[in-house]
């Protein structure tokens, strides 16, 4: 946080986020009454999309968007920079993000995430990974979109770590397209990586005067044109790298 203006800015934004969280929880309690599984997932994804747009506006995050997500089921495969990534993507396209299971236990944020359809996984637990594969397959079969961060952790700069194959196999089995996604932020300190803890980083973000993000959606990759899940994962990563380089150049050129 930088001085009194930043502190006041952060305080105002945190107050608005608290009110938004309360409103989202109230709406989620009424959502899905009498709805079937697929309809409930759609309602939760729509609620997350609206809450994401409002949360990002409350923080003054300006977002430049390139490309679009076509209708229908898809696996969105994105590079991973920050806890902001699911909000940035969900604000542009209704989807069910995948998150580490620890988020479910966070005060307020975890409850909101559970109520808006976020899919949780303990990556070190084989049973949890199997449960996730089943949940993703069901969501895609029901016509939904799932947002995956196949690096498995956050990365910095122009780096995109190797993609894990798991959910690409689900996409191939179902014949669902993969949409490559690239996210970048300005300033670069918005990336949440390494040993950085959440609260100090979030307070820094909440105090920023003019944070910016850029997200690009690539052309759909037909999943069954690739012979294996590994090949599909590699193709998605290559597309994401190209999109990311373009987004970084755009942010650097644009004041």
Descriptive notes:
The protein has 255 residues and is an alpha/beta fold. It is built from 8 helices and 7 strands, in the order ααββαβαβαβαβαβα. It has helices spanning 3-30, 37-58, 85-90, 109-115, 126-141, 166-174, 198-207, 229-253, and strands spanning 62-66, 74-78, 96-100, 119-121, 145-148, 178-186, 212-217. It has a 7-stranded mixed β-sheet with strand order 1-7-6-2-5-3-4, with helices on both faces. Helix 1 packs across helix 7 (198-207). The longest helix is centred in the N-terminal third of the chain and has 28 residues, at 3-30. The model has no long low-confidence stretch (mean pLDDT 92).
Beta strand %: 5-15%
Oligomer: single chain
Main CATH class:
Alpha Beta
CATH architectural group: 3-Layer(aba) Sandwich
- Lateral strand order in the biggest sheet: 1-7-6-2-5-3-4
Low-confidence stretches: none
Count of the separate structural domains:
1
Helical percentage = 40-55%
Global structural class: alpha/beta
Looking at the structure, what is the overall shape? globular
| Number of H/I helices | 8
Query: Biggest sheet, in brief?
Result: 7 strands, mixed
State Rg: 18 Å
Average pLDDT confidence is 92
The number of E-state strands comes to 7
CATH topology category name:
Glycerol-3-phosphate (1)-acyltransferase
Order of helices and strands: HHEEHEHEHEHEHEH
First and last CA, distance? 22 Å
